[in-house]
Design goal:
CATH architecture of the largest domain: Alpha-Beta Complex
Strand content: 15-25%
Number of strands: 9
CATH topology of the largest domain: Spore Coat Polysaccharide Biosynthesis Protein SpsA, Chain A
Order of helices and strands: EHEHEHEEHEEHEHHEHHHH
Helix content: 40-55%
Largest sheet: 9 strands, mixed
Shape: globular
Number of domains: 2
Number of helices: 11
CATH superfamily of the largest domain: Spore Coat Polysaccharide Biosynthesis Protein SpsA, Chain A
Oligomer: single chain
């Protein structure tokens, strides 16, 4: 079996050693899993190309380096998915790295699943550098669900690490609107949820360190720069089975749908909402939500 590790990077040369080392450790610890590391340099201006070139010369693992003008993480990953040759694949940011036994955990979990036919991903825990779980745990190991249900119905929180079934993952891509560079990974996951499932395991395979300039710490900036993608994401949530969605999560959906409706100046925001209850709630909240959004935009400016 072969695993493809997909990394989109932009001016993160100083962080790549840590990820590279963790891949080597896992490659040595798990001989049953063949490894390839695909890197898309998203227009870096530092010495990323030279650093990766040194890794390639060492010949320890199979590394393929590509570059593109700065188009954003999602476009970069889309290209790497097409080029990957593994049976499974995992997206690993340049500020993340693998636990020492990650590959063995992945293989063991695949064996527990037995049939991966309708499983688009295995979902694992992510830890921070202090060994803390970046969220809560699943109900049990080898637990079947969807990413939508986990976060909107089952009160799962925090970041998780997904290992994709390549046969299914290659049927989908990150949808980025014209002129925008980013969209939440959840938009892709929710499209896959409509046809397939995930299986969840309470074991960490990845360690994360957020960077000051990273996506996660600049969410408001991302919202303002990529409003069309986020509007479509929240509109598409209404395509999901909303039965069982907690009241807190429903309010989260309504508020953000209204936020991005205002930011993108939608003319038929209420009409685009599916479901009678959803439409009623958006109608009630729309005017106060619009006022609050415009006040916040004014304050940010």
């Amino acid at each position: 079996m072969k695993i493809s590790i997909l990394t989109a990077t932009y001016n993160r040369a100083k962080l790549l050693d840590r990820l590279y080392t963790s891949i080597i450790v896992n490659n040595n610890n798990c001989e049953e899993l063949e490894t390839e590391w695909l890197i898309m340099d998203d227009g870096s201006t530092d010495n990323t190309k030279r650093i990766v070139g040194e890794y390639i010369k060492e010949g320890i693992i199979d590394i393929k380096y590509y570059n593109q003008e700065n188009k954003g993480k999602m476009t970069a990953i889309n290209e790497l998915v097409k080029k990957s040759t593994g049976d499974i694949m995992v997206e690993c940011d340049s500020d993340d790295y693998f636990t020492e036994d990650a590959f063995n955990i992945i293989l063991s979990s695949i064996r527990q699943c037995k049939d991966m036919g309708n499983v688009y991903a295995l979902v694992f825990l992510k830890y921070d550098q202090d060994g803390n779980n970046m969220g809560n745990e699943f109900f049990e190991d080898n637990y079947e669900s969807t990413m939508f249900d986990l976060y909107f119905k089952e009160n799962i929180t925090g970041e998780k690490a997904l290992v994709f079934n390549s046969n299914i993952r290659k049927q989908f891509e990150y949808e980025v609107e014209d002129g925008e560079k980013f969209i939440t990974e959840a938009r892709l996951h929710h499209k896959m949820d409509l046809e397939y499932v995930v299986r969840c395991f309470n074991k960490p395979i990845m360690i994360c360190e957020y960077q000051k300039e990273g996506y996660s710490k600049n969410i408001n900036k991302l919202f303002l720069e990529n409003p069309q993608g986020y509007y479509n994401y929240f509109k598409e949530i209404f395509d999901q089975d909303m039965h069982g969605v907690t009241s807190k999560k429903r309010m989260y959906i309504y508020k953000h749908y209204i936020l991005f409706s205002v930011l993108t100046k939608q003319k038929h925001a209420i009409k685009n909402v599916k479901g009678i209850l959803n439409r009623i709630m958006v109608t009630i909240l729309y005017i106060p939500g619009k006022i609050v959004t415009k006040l916040r935009i004014r304050d940010n400016k």
